[in-house]
Amino acid sequence: MDKASDIDRVQATMREALRDYEVLIREHAGDNAKALTLFGAIAADAFDPSRHAARNVLVVKKVDLAMLHRLAEHGAKLGKASIAAPLVMTPEYIQSSLDTFPLELVDISQAHLTLFGDDHFVDLPFDETHIRLQCEREIKVVLIGLRQGLLAAAGREKVIGALEVDVAEGLLRTLRGLLWLKGRKDAQPAEKVVSEVEALTKRKLAGLRTALDAQAQHGWDQFESLYRDVETLGEIADAW
């Protein structure tokens, strides 16, 4: 039996759209749908529809491509309602991914709400080694992406600035993983995540802070500062 919905814990301006989304999922997935879970900003009382889309996971008994194809027809309407396309997982996929994608699952487990079905992301048995290795890998991937993005930008400041912002948002998940390794396993807003990492590393992350500030200037100088921060975080992750 479904547990009580967490919809009342979502900010009021998004409730109607999310109720409609739940109805849509139930209509298309039927008995194959085991749960619909919100995560990230929408579940952490930090949601801004002008900047965020409500991220969510659809847990199904089995993956049905035809159903996903039908659901995709509603993508434009959902996008206008600030609702992201769902991540689609089975319970078996969640359990088998704990060693390969732990940061993504930590991200979901730390701040999530269940609209219907059982909670598949509570008390997941994460392994510190798996989290540490993915933190190292993610930072290395970010560094490569920054280098390649800089070349592809061909000197266009606007493109460089957009790359900086995109990387910073994604990097937060890795920072939460680093904090998890140091015992900070509860959900925290971006500002506190950065502050705690700065306290642990005894290093100010000015480039990352600027990249996360939507009102700040974003260009070459800020990009260079962010790159130095990511290099430092890579050295720290390696040491840990």
**Rg of Cα set:** 19 Å
Mean pLDDT: 93
Number of helices: 10
Shape: globular
Domains, number: 2
| End-to-end gap | 43 Å
Order of helices and strands: HEEHHEHHEHHHHH
Strand order of the largest sheet: 3-2-1-4
What multimeric state do the chains show? single chain
User: Strand fraction band?
Assistant: 5-15%
Low-confidence residue ranges: none
The helix fraction, in percent, is 55-70%
Question: Main sheet?
Answer: 4 strands, mixed
For the secondary structure, the number of strands is 4
- Structural class, by secondary structure, is alpha+beta
Structure in words:
With 240 residues, the protein is an alpha+beta fold. The protein has two domains: 7-117, Beta Polymerase, domain 2 (2-Layer Sandwich), CATH 3.30.460; 128-239. It is 57% helix and 9% strand. It contains ten helices and four strands. It has helices at 12-29, 65-72, 75-80, 91-96, 102-110, 128-153, 157-181, 190-201, 206-212, 220-239; strands at 33-39, 55-60, 87-89, 112-117. It has a four-stranded mixed sheet with strand order 3-2-1-4. The radius of gyration is 19 Å and the shape is globular. It starts with 11 loop residues before the first helix and ends with a helix. The mean pLDDT is 93.
